[in-house]
Design a protein that fits this description.
Elements: H1 4-15, E1 20-22, E2 29-33, H2 37-47, E3 56-58, H3 74-83, E4 88-93, H4 100-103, E5 108-112, H5 117-126, E6 130-131, H6 146-153, E7 173-176, E8 183-186, H7 192-199, E9 204-205, E10 232-235, H8 237-249, E11 254-258, E12 271-275, H9 280-296, E13 301-305, H10 314-323
Parallel strand pairs: 3-5, 4-7, 8-9, 10-13, 11-12, 11-13
Antiparallel strand pairs: 1-2, 2-6, 3-6, 4-5, 7-8
Helix pairs in contact: 1-5
The protein binds threonylcarbamoyladenylate (TXA) and magnesium ion.
Magnesium ion (MG) is lined by residues 133-134, 142, 211.
């Protein structure tokens, strides 16, 4: 686990406007002092992320929400009190003092309280908010283990606080409070159904997560995101092995992420099966690590057996869709 000296070094980096990498329950974050435009700018530069894609401010507890937000609708407060610390991000009207580098110049700011002992210790020791996207290069797979971060950034991103594998494994659910009704901006491990049952209202489904979908009118829409370097296809259980066989016949090597034990493959060359859990929460926890390791396997293609539909699979299906090639294709 993290030793106090590492924590002190990380705090020192934050205070000097430099970046650090820290674990959260969802994915590892690449963090900077949210009140320091220079630090925030470093995050964008390191990631290669367009400046109009705003960051999430991580805070220590719900008690500090008012430092970032100028207005808290009743439903937002209820969600914060129910689900924080936890994998839920709220987009709320921001205070003027929040640097435009964090919000992309918007009126709103995204805030969450992470549920990870190392993140909590860091936030406590630092004393302020930490603006942090996932610690991956823009558009690539999110990191759920420290080696994923080391592989893409080496030492470039500053100190990496070790926190073991992330227990949730997919990014937080994002709920926006801009119009009259709350809107689901990104599905995550807290399902939309659960939030709606708790609030007793239905959310809008705008799907405005901007790392995944380019704003209209901007070039590069259709670009793939959360994606491995190896082309990835998602296929229904019926179609999966037929597709695998035809690729193998063409001489391709294939890595398959599957619910089965891979028995279908007996005697086939060129194919490696990686089994994954049938339970949505375990699947989510294993997904990015599985894709990272398939991506390193040197395969010509990655095939993924499509999970079922249904809201408990919402976050997983969303990330798979974004990771597929052709982009967005199933
Ligand atoms: O689980 C997570 O949320 C992780 C960990 C590190 O906390 N963070 C994460 O950050 O996934 P990132 O930057 O990869 O995704 C943040 C998303 C982006 O899609 C961004 O467009 C959206 O939040 N976002 C941030 N501020 C926003 C705002 N003011 N309005 C709408 N969307 C916003
Ligand atoms: Mg990300």
């Amino acid at each position: 686990m993290t030793i106090p000296e590492d924590l002190a070094t990380a705090v020192d980096h934050l205070k000097r406007g430099l970046t650090v990498v820290f674990p959260t329950e969802t994915v590892y974050g690449l963090g900077a002092d949210a009140m320091n435009p220079k630090g925030v700018e470093r995050v964008f530069a390191l990631k290669g992320r367009p400046r109009n894609r705003p960051l999430i401010v991580h805070i220590e507890g719900v008690a500090r929400l008012e430092e970032w937000v100028r207005e808290i609708p009743e439903e937002a407060r209820r969600l914060a009190e129910r689900f924080w610390p936890g994998p839920l991000t709220l987009v709320l009207p921001g205070r003027r003092e929040v640097p435009r580098e964090v919000t992309g110049g918007r009126e709103t700011v995204a805030v969450r309280v992470p549920d990870h002992p190392v993140a909590t210790a860091l936030l406590k020791a630092f004393g302020g908010g930490i603006a942090a996207p996932s610690a991956n290069r823009f558009g690539r797979l999110s990191p759920t283990a420290s080696w994923h971060v080391r592989e893409s950034f080496g030492d470039e991103a500053g100190p990496i606080l070790e926190g073991g594998p992330c227990p949730v494994g997919v990014e937080s659910t994002i709920v926006g409070f801009v119009g009259e009704r709350p809107a689901l901006l990104r599905p995550g491990s807290i399902s939309a159904q659960r939030i709606e049952a708790f609030l007793g209202i239905r959310m809008l489904r705008t799907g405005a997560d901007e790392e995944g979908s380019s704003p209209p009118g901007l070039p590069g829409s259709g670009e793939s995101h959360y994606a491995p370097a190896t082309p990835l296809e998602v296929r229904s259980p019926d179609a999966l092995w037929i597709r695998v066989r035809s690729l193998v016949l063409r001489g391709e090597t294939v890595g398959v992420l599957t619910f089965s034990d891979g028995r279908e493959l007996d005697g086939q060359g060129g194919v490696t099966a990686l089994p994954i859990s049938k339970r949505p929460s375990e699947y989510a926890r294993e997904l990015y690590a599985a894709l990272h390791s398939l991506d390193r396997g040197g395969f010509g293609r990655i095939l993924v057996e499509a999970p079922p539909d249904g809201e408990e699979w919402g976050a997983v299906n969303d990330r798979l869709k974004r990771a597929s090639h052709p982009p967005g294709g199933r």
